[in-house]
Amino acid sequence: MISLQLCMIQVYVSETKIAKANRIQNKEPGEEKDDSEEKFEPINYRQAIIFTIMIAAYIFLLEPIGYFIITPIYIVSTYIFLNATKVRNIVFISIGFTAFVYFLFVVFLKLPIPMGLLQ
Amino acid sequence: MIFENLLLGLKNVMSISSLLSVIIGTALGLFVGAMPGLSATMAIALLLPITFGMNPATGISMLASLYMGAMYGGSIAAILIKTPGTPAAAATVMDGYPLMQQGKAGKALGVSLVASLIGGVLSSIALLTIAPALGNLALQFGPVELFAVAVLGITIIGSLSQGSTLLGLLSGAIGLLLALVGMDPITGTPRFTFGSIYLFSGVPYTVALIGLFSIPQAIKLIQRDEEEKKTISKFTDRMLPTLQELKLMIPNTIRSSIIGIVTGIIPGTGGDTACWFAYNEAKRFSKDKDKFGKGSIEGLSAAESANNAVVGGALIPTLTLGIPGSSATAIIMGGLMVHGIMSGPTLMTEYADVTYTLIWALMISNIAMFALGLLFTRLAINVTKISDKVLAPIIIVLCVIGSFAINNSIFDVYLMFAFGILGYFMNKINMPTAPMVVGMILGQMLDTSLHQSLLIGQDSWAVFIKNPISAALLFIALVSILQSTPLFSIIKRKIKSKKSDEALG
Predict the structure, then answer these.
(1) Is residue B455 part of a domain?
(2) What is the rounded CA–CA span in Å between residue A57 and residue B202?
(3) What is the DSSP letter of B181?
């Protein structure tokens, strides 16, 4: 009984695969745009690589320095590097967000967080 | 027994903490879904560590309602800025955006909200009825059948995920390999630990999940040079559809919901498949096909009801068999396992209180979604204006603290980062990450059940063929692998040409 059902699912599944393939074949004008936009975006490799290195630095300094000191430093430096937003917003987000994490994880959930220098 | 559990679940979900977590989860989902840069899967992965401190039923309900809320949230960006907020809202763009161009943005959002509600409620009902029945059946499964279920789960997800079957299966195989790291569950022999004490307990897949779904997303958000500013207009018209439009929607949404539920049940296919499938079917059944793509209410409601219906459908195999239907449900399953609850047949009996609370929470989250949608859609529009570059570091900060909090270990943070880099390159070569996650989760089940089955069969592999259920399941797994071989592609091409002939003629 269950095998019969699963066989049916299998047939159905191959149908969906065909339907998918069909969709790719007979692309409607609107769809085509969405697909190509996703794939052929120019990538700023320098930005991506430095961003990744900054993450690595952040997590390696996490234990010796402490989460609640390194996090605002990380957020501020990343925002400056990415030229993400205004200075006022950078200060507000870095402090506000660290405080939010502190209240959520330390005060509310009481989870142990590496304190580093603050200990 | 089932009826008692149903009532127990309903009673649990009606507590203030449960209701609050459902509402918070749905609201988070709504906003996350509305942001094109954030996927629902990522949000669930980031929320996961926060739920550890809660009781299991409440925490898991929160994750599931986030999933549900994000499915509607995705349509907000799809309709207003022509960018689907989640992949599952891709078909919503087709008719949602033209409606907005006609100055009916509010109507489009309202239709999408009502369709999401119907889809979600129907899928919750399906979950409520199918899951206990399937769970009863699965209770008779022993290690031999469970082994076959695990094999089937990995092969189906590998072969059905987007992209090539080969890469999907490879991804699943890597996941299985990673699951073998650590002590053998039966003999206790350490494997692939390279002498490192950190690897003795294995690679924690919750950590891998957070890395795989968050880091690549964050890097992707900042790798573009300049983001184009998209202007978002406020809408002023009424959201609720009229009675006449509702009449037009109902048969359509019911059909699309069924499509969504079935697509959800099949492991590996999710909202992105379901919405196109339902959209095409709606077009086929519709009386005025010309309106499709030009702002058809039918098309919009089909896509939106299907992607919400997937949520309940995808939870059915996750809860009853322990095979996650999508990456989002894989994380929900991971959340259960962190609380020491093994997904699979026992979930419907031993942990009935958690399971039935979750099922009811999904039902309630639909109502929460409807209410929050009416109240906050206008607010959620502002969220889509947040710059991607502002979001990226916030994601990193959250996934670092999340991966640390799971086992309170800094090693896990490094591991999470490594998985993140791996995931980025997997995305680059179009290798799906979901099979890998599922492989890691099912690997433990596969490992244990293989060992036990061989003990039952006195070291003979014939035990899997002698058992009718496992033989059938393994046969289906074989077929799904063979699908990618040249033999099958010839047959498929024939069917395809026949189908496209029909479509043209």
Answers:
(1) yes
(2) 26
(3) -
Decide the pairing of beta strands B190-191 and B182-183: antiparallel
**How close, in Å, is residue B498 to chain A by CA atoms?**
11
Q: In B, which residues are within 8 Å of A108 by CB distance?
A: 53
Find chain A residues with C-beta within 8 A of B160's C-beta: 13, 17
- The domain limits of chain A are 2-39, 45-118
Phi, psi of B213 (to 5 degrees): -100, -15
CA dihedral of residues B52, B432, B146, B349 (deg, nearest 10): 30
User: What is the least distance, in Å, from the CA of B238 to any CA of chain A?
Assistant: 27
Residue B158 corresponds to which tokens in the numbers above? Answer: 């590998």
Retrieve residue B13's tokens.
């979900």
In a domain, B232, yes or no: no
pLDDT digits (tens, 9 = 90+) for B286-344: 887 788 888 888 889 999 999 899 999 999 988 888 888 778 888 888 888 888 887 77
Distance CA B375, CA B159 (A): 41
Q: Answer yes or no: do A55 and B265 touch at CB < 8 A.
A: no
pLDDT band, residue B146 (cuts 50/70/90): confident
Task: Tell me the whole-structure pTM to 2 decimals.
Answer: 0.84
pLDDT tens for residues B383-418?
Answer: 777 888 888 999 999 999 989 988 888 999 999 999
Which of A16, A23, A89 is facing B263, going by the closest CB pair? A16
Query: Span B218-228, mean pLDDT?
Result: 77
> Are the CB atoms for B302 and B254 separated by under 8 Å?
no
Q: Which of B101, B161, B281, B401 to mutate to test the interface with A (most CBs of A within 10 A)?
A: B401
* Reduced DSSP (H G I as helix, E B as strand, rest coil) percent helix, strand, coil of chain B, to 5: 75, 0, 25
Whether residues A78 and B94 touch (CB distance < 8 A) is answered with no
Asked if A30 and B469 come within 8 Å (Cβ–Cβ), the reply is no
Give the range of the structural domain holding residue B123, as residue numbers without chain letter. Answer: 2-223+237-499
Q: Identify the residue among A50, A55, A100 best suited for mutation to test binding to B, counting B beta carbons within 10 A and taking the highest.
A: A55
Q: Do B94 and A30 touch (CB under 8 A)?
A: yes
Please give the residue that has the higher pLDDT: either B281 or B349. Answer: B281
DSSP symbol at B242: P
Domain count within chain B: 1
**Mean pLDDT, residues B183-206 taken together:** 82
